[in-house]
Amino acid sequence: MLELIGANLETILQSTIRLAAPFLLAAAGGLFSDLAGVSSIELEAILLMGAFAGFVGAFFSGSLLVGMLAAMAAGVAVCAIYSYLVVGIGARAALVATALVLFSTGFTSFFNRALFGVSTDVVSVVALSNLPVPVLSKLPLIGPVFFQQNPLVYLAFLLIAAQCFFFYRTMVGLEWRSIGENANASDTAGLPVRRYRHMAVPPHGGAGDGRCCGSGGGLSVHCLV
User: Of 63-67, 122-126, 130-134, where does mean pLDDT reach its minimum?
Assistant: First the structure.
């Protein structure tokens, strides 16, 4: 009985870590724009479009790489719209984000039915294989839960450490946070506030949440199939 409970607990915890990774990527992406003073309330729209584009790309091409690239492209496309409307022309972030979420929900639902129809048959793609970490994956309980995951799960957690270093140990990271904390003071100090904010929501700089959240959407496909 205890062995059965232990096996089930291990499976549940492993699945929890795997299913948390897409949202971790989304949160990591949103942190870029949030710390630059641009609200990241459009993340659901990016995840929806990223998941749909990633699945369609992987399904029709037969390649997981194509699927992930499609997910990233969809995330950047949504961010380009958000950045233009919010940062470029000063529209209200809440209104733009709500519109994008509603549009993404309708768009993905409509084209899902158009491409795959309405059926009880489950349409799926081949998921990423787990990549066990030598030695660590053999540890009791902790090994299977944390060190027997697919590569993108490891990437999601490594990205958090990389972000901490970037924002708190580099000059660019310090400037990035200062813009979010006080844009007027940063502008007076000569920092290009609008350029940083465009970079944070990345149609121009490409260094922020579009690729992370799009990847999160694509990863959610591989985590759930």
Answer: 122-126
Contact 149, 131 (CB under 8 A): yes
Give the number of other Cβ atoms within 10 Å of residue 1's Cβ: 5
Give the integer Cα–Cα distance in Å for 125 and 57: 10
* CA angle (78, 80, 81) in 5-degree steps: 70
The per-residue pLDDT for 202 is 62
**In residues, how long is the chain?**
225
Q: Which of 132-136, 169-173, 216-220 has the lowest mean pLDDT?
A: 216-220
- Comparing CA positions, the residue from 221, 224, 210, 217 lying closest to residue 58 is 221
Contact by Cβ (8 Å): 78, 49? yes
Q: What is the pTM of this model?
A: 0.80
Confidence of residue 3 (pLDDT cuts 50, 70, 90): low
CA nearest to 213, candidates 90, 12, 34 = 34
Per-domain residue ranges of the chain: 2-117+133-224
Residues 6+ apart with CB under 8 A from 17: 145, 146, 149, 153
**pLDDT tens by residue, 63-95:** 888 888 888 888 888 888 988 898 888 889 899
Q: Cα–Cα distance between 64 and 128 in angstroms, integer? A: 8
Closest CA to 186 of 31, 37, 82: 37
